[in-house]
Amino acid sequence: MNQRWPNLPEAAADFRFLLARGYPRRAALGLVGNRYGLDEIGRRLLHRGVFAPEVAAARRAKLRLLRELPGLPLGLDGHNVLITLECAARHLPLVAADDGFIRDVGEISRAFRVSDATDRVLTLVADYLAGQAAGPLEVFYDAPLSLSGELAGRTREIFASRHLAVQAAAVPVPERLLSGFPGAIATSDTALIDAHATVVDLAGEIIRRHPAWQLIYPGEPGPGEEG
């Protein structure tokens, strides 16, 4: 466990206990965060990583590995996947959540900008997808975010260079298209996971292949999650 939050497991256990008994999430997080003296990032780790057991179990039941879905259409929550991987590449905190998904803790989401690092992450994603024979692929970016149209264009170029069948676009509300997508979706967004039947943690699968990108477990690692 990262020494910055030595009491995170105990805090997570208390937070999980309160959520399981129906306490409002925000109030429970404030109570636990104050009791254990957690800083802002520590509280985000709990918020993005700890859930009531029945909620976590329901999401885990929807989670599939990409290799289990050959040939199935896959819709990517573009900014969600890229931002998680950029955080990983910067060695920012990542939480291995109760529900089986890996999440960043929101340190760059609001300030995300297309950069050279974005191209490197897109290449990493394209290589992984090509190795899994994934597709056909549709990537949806959040149009209100800066340079989303350019990002969609770079996605098409990089994915095509790996011989991937892909459509990529900047759209006003990606969640509307992804929630009803006819196939699997790749995201760690909780609302989308709850709305869709089949979900892939694409960023998480890639992150688990890079041992240097350390994960923080607010609870005990599940089967196959160590490292």
Q: Summarize this, please?
A:
By secondary structure, this protein is of the alpha/beta class. It contains ten helices and eight strands. It folds into two domains: 1-50; 63-207, Rossmann fold (3-Layer(aba) Sandwich), CATH 3.40.50.
Can you lay out the helices and strands and say which pair or pack?
Layout: H1 8-20, H2 25-36, H3 40-49, H4 53-62, E1 63-64, E2 74-77, H5 78-89, E3 94-96, E4 102-104, H6 116-131, E5 137-142, H7 148-161, E6 166-171, H8 174-179, E7 184-186, H9 190-195, E8 199-200, H10 202-207
Parallel strand pairs: 1-8, 2-5, 2-7, 5-6, 7-8
Antiparallel strand pairs: 3-4
Helix pairs in contact: 1-2, 2-3, 5-6, 6-7
Question: How many separate helices?
Answer: 10
What is the CATH architecture descriptor of the largest domain? 3-Layer(aba) Sandwich
Question: What is the CATH class designation of the largest domain?
Answer: Alpha Beta
> Structural class, judged by helices and strands?
alpha/beta
Low-confidence segments, given as residue ranges, are 221-227
Count of extended strands: 8
How far is the N terminus from the C terminus?
A: 12 Å
- Can you tell me the number of structural domains? 2
Helix content: 40-55%
Spatial extent as radius of gyration: 17 Å
> SSE string, helix = H, strand = E?
HHHHEEHEEHEHEHEHEH
Could you say which overall geometry the principal axes of the C-alpha atoms support?
globular
CATH fold label of the largest domain: Rossmann fold
Overall residue-averaged pLDDT value:
91
Strand content: 5-15%
Widest sheet, order of strands: 1-8-7-2-5-6
How is the main sheet built? 6 strands, parallel
